[in-house]
Amino acid sequence: MNIPLMVAWMCVFGALVHGLITTRHTNMKCEVQDESFVEVKECRLKVLGRGIIGANVYLKLKVLPVKTVQVNFSVWKKLSGYHPYLFNTTVNFCHILKHPNPSNIFFYFYREIRPYSNANHSCPINFFTQQHDIILKNFVLNEKMFSLFPVPTGNYMFAIKIMANDAWRATIFSYMDVTGDKS
């Protein structure tokens, strides 16, 4: 890496650590690939307070048991359209729940989302109850989430693809802005 680029990354990282960069949700979209398997009851952003935006998702499962769950998690940056950025990883979600690995990038983001979600039960999922639906309630982006790796200012999209029982079932797109603090 050349020196000017390395200095730029260090400045961005320093800004994140010292709170000079802010993040906020800008949009959310959910797509279902198999409507006989899952239904989107809610997929929206909600204003929780001044400048505080929470993400809400409610996916109702229609077919049980769910024996396997794979999650593909990717980050995209908007340039002239959205382009792959940082990482694109697929994990066995059931395995991550049973054997958490803090060095896994997916686990890092899951740990931040976990307090706002009920997606914490082990596989297989066998019972038709609300607790087995996938619910994310009032998840607010936190600048500390981005303290381990530098994120330059710009517009980003997180694409979360969910595979259950060996077929793609749903995709959640979460859009966010990373901006410099104007104060």
Write a compact overview of the structure shown.
The protein is of the alpha+beta class. 16% of the residues lie in helices and 49% in strands.
SSE layout and pairing:
Layout: H1 3-17, E1 21-32, E2 38-49, E3 52-61, E4 69-79, E5 81-92, H2 93-98, H3 105-113, E6 134-140, E7 154-164, E8 167-180
Q: Provide the CATH architecture.
A: Distorted Sandwich
- Please identify the structural class as seen in this structure: alpha+beta
Q: What integer value in Å does the Rg equal?
A: 17 Å
Q: Count of helices?
A: 3
Q: What overall form do the CA principal axes indicate?
A: globular
The overall pLDDT, averaged over residues, is: 83
The figure for the number of domains is 1
Distance between the termini: 32 Å
Low-confidence stretches: 1-18
Compressed to H and E, one letter per element, the order equals: HEEEEEHHEEE
Largest sheet: 5 strands, antiparallel
Helix amount: 10-25%
Strand order of the largest sheet: 1-8-7-4-5
